[in-house]
Every structure is written in structure tokens, then in C-alpha cells.
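Sequence in, structure out. Go.
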Amino acid sequence: MFGEATASNRRRRTARRLAAAVLAPSLLAAGALAGAGPAAAGEQPRSPGGAAATLGRLTVHDAVTISDAGEEWKAEAGLFEMTVTGGGTLQSYSIDLRTPAREGTTYKEVGWEQSSLHKNKNAGRIRWILEHSYPQVNDLAALAKSAGAESLDNRTAAAGTQAAIWSLSDDVGARPADPDARKLAAYLGRAAKDTRQPPASLALDPPAVAGRAGERVGPVTVRTGADRATVQVTAGAPLGVRAVDKDGKTVKDVGDGARLYFDIPADTPGGTTALTVQADARVPIGRAFVSDTHSQTQILAGASTSTVTAEATATWAAAKASGAVPALSATKNCTRSGVDITAANAGDAPFSFELLGSRYTIAAGKSRTVTIPLQEDQAYDLTVSGPGGLRKNFTGVLDCETAGTVAIGTADAPANRPTPATAGKPTPLVTADDENLAATGGSAATAMIGYLALGMVVLGGGAVFLLRKKKPVPAPDED
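Output:
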């Protein structure tokens, strides 16, 4: 059988979710204090760029029995279909079993470091499975032969593949109902080898630059697997602002490795704008897809040519102005359980800003990244404030772990189902799990008192990191 998580592991995962529920109002309040004053427009931390897609139905699936910590429940295992914004379709498997999949939810392509795979030692093995099983391998007779199975159809191949993935992504036992699907899952678990993370379909680095009018502000480097990508300055940019190359020539299409600049006319008042790069590309198999609404994290299993986009912003001061010229951006950092706020100063004087009651100073020509630690599932509202009325606001939810016992699937209400739950309010962070607490002599009330105390410690000391130790999972048996 697949390796099983212990009951204590499950209680620890629940504890983190309960703590997040208690801490959420506190950290949000801290963000509100830092952002007091004139309203600052909220902005999501930037992903590396790439595809955005809407989750559709679980289209090809079969039954699987999940076992974890001595409990069993049924789930439907298989492929989801996603519709790409701008054109294209994707197929995906789940890597977050216990979180409901919400049909109609918008997802964005991210690297493993921004998903629940960020500290999973088996992430590379999951990618190997994706590359060597259905739907990438559509010769099901050959796949059955490799697995020692009599035969496979689309449903059993999808179920067997998902079962093998869940054993590595969610640390559970997953036993397909079909015997040939069980053999496929066992074969994939034995054969999987570590592989590298796939690159983004399209990325711009850095996502924010700064300078002065009369200069070429940048560079921003394009990374893409597409042959060509189009470049366009955002509508509403000041008259004369262009996207150019290092020689000052207007750029309208680029390839991988191109370096872009914002050309700002010398008489342009200080301001900000953005450019968008767009391409038709195949998103690499194994890229993670996440949402901001607690919908089940997905991993790419198949893709048509799809529309992918990325955006970079530029901030500039007037040509003869002196002082700091900052560029601000935010990126989710699952490795450090928080959000990275990066400030780059292209001016000729130090740039000082305040964030959550602390003051930071960036020397002229330098940059600095500040990591704001958060609890899992923590909603945050972070405002950077600086001289001259500068206010930059970043909002979102930290979602870096599999769900533990939250929204755990059952035969009556599986987390994976043929028709995912309609997008809407997230599943509550605290779920009824009193039986586990009672088994240890505790109660829900006792646990909540402990988490409230933890919340007070966090408010007094700044932040607490709660790390999950993930153990390796052996290959499944065939029987």
C-alpha cells in the first residue's frame, strides 16, 4: 500500500489551519494600520507571468479509495479541463486532494516555489509521471504493457495517474477501484525519477523598473518558449512613451532573451506605466496552477497552444528632479512562508519606506527585498508608504500547503467530484474535527484557547513560522 500519514501529522496540519484562522484578523489589522490614510489601490503579488485559466469540469475520471491515518474515503480521480484566458485549453491533475475544486475559479500559472510543491522532495517525480503517463502517452495499449496491466481506457489511465500523483503530492494512500488502474499507479510510483522544474511559458524579469524622464528605463528581460511575442505599452501611457531595445528602436515583437526598455520623453512629468508581452505558446507540462480563492491546486498534464501574458511596470521622475526613484513589486515566497516586497531605488538619494510599522532605507542605485512572514491561508493587506505621498498596496492570500484535514473528502462529499463545486466563498478554515481532539483528551475549545494564545504571541513578536515536515512516500503495491 501507499505510505500513510500518521494521526499526529494530521492534527499538526489542522493546527496550522486553525492558527491561521485566529491570526487572520490580527495580521489584517496590522496591514490596515500600516495603510491608514488615503486609499491605496490593491495589487496582487506578481506571478512570473504565463497562462491564466478558468477551471472547468473533471472530465475523465474513475473511483479511487483514499487512506490516511487509519481513515478511508472515496474520491473521483482524473483530469480537469481548464479554459485559457485569450484562447487555448489545458488539462490538469490535482496536487491538493483535500481542498475542493471550484468550477469557474480563475487560476494562474506559477513555479513550484509559489505552490504546495515548494518543499516537496517528490515534485520532480510528479513531473516524470506527467511526462510518461496519460494524456502525454496516448497509446494506452503501450502504457498498459509497461504497467503490466491487461488494458487501460481513458478513465482508468487517468485514475491510475492521479492516484500515483496524490501519493507524492498529498502523502496519502490512493487505491484505484479498477485493478489495471492500480497496476498503472504502482508502476508509475516505482518508475518515477527526479526531474527539473519546467520553465515559465512567459516571464519578465524584473517585474518593475525605475528611472528618469529622458532616459531608457530598464532593462526588462523576456523569458519564453514561444518563437515570438508581441509587446505593447499599456493604454493611457503618457504621450511618446515607447517600448524600445537598447539602441532606442521601437520594439513590437521579441524572442526569448530580449531586453526591453521604457523610453520616456524628457519633457514627461513623473509617473508610472506598464508594458504587456503576449505570445501563443505551449505551457510546459508540470507547471503549477493556483487560485486566490482556496480552490484545489492543479498541475499541468496537457495543453494546446495557449495565450500567455506577462506585465512589467516602470516608474520615473521628471528629468531634472533629484531624489529617490523607487520601483516596488511583490512576489509570493512559499519557501519562506511569506510575501517578498522588493524595492529598487534608481534615484540619486536614499529611499526610505515604512511597512507594518518598520522603516527601511534603500541606498541610491541599490535594491532590497523584505520578506513578510505569514501563516498558511493568511489573507494579507500590505501597504508600502514613502515620501511624497507614495502608497503601494499589495493584497492576497498565502496558499502554499496542501490542505491537511481541511475539507477532507468523504463518500458523501468528495473533494474531487465529477462537477467541481461552484466558485464562491472559500471552505471555512476551521472544520469539525472534534473526534481527533477527543481521542487525545482535548476538545475544540481547548485547542482554540491554545491558538488564541499563539495569536497573541505572534502579535507581540512579529511572526511565527510553522513548518511542515513532509516524509517520502514509497511506491504503491499492486494488490
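Check: The CA atoms of residues 103 and 420 lie 5 Å apart. Residues 1-41, 405-414, 417-477 have pLDDT under 50 and may be disordered.
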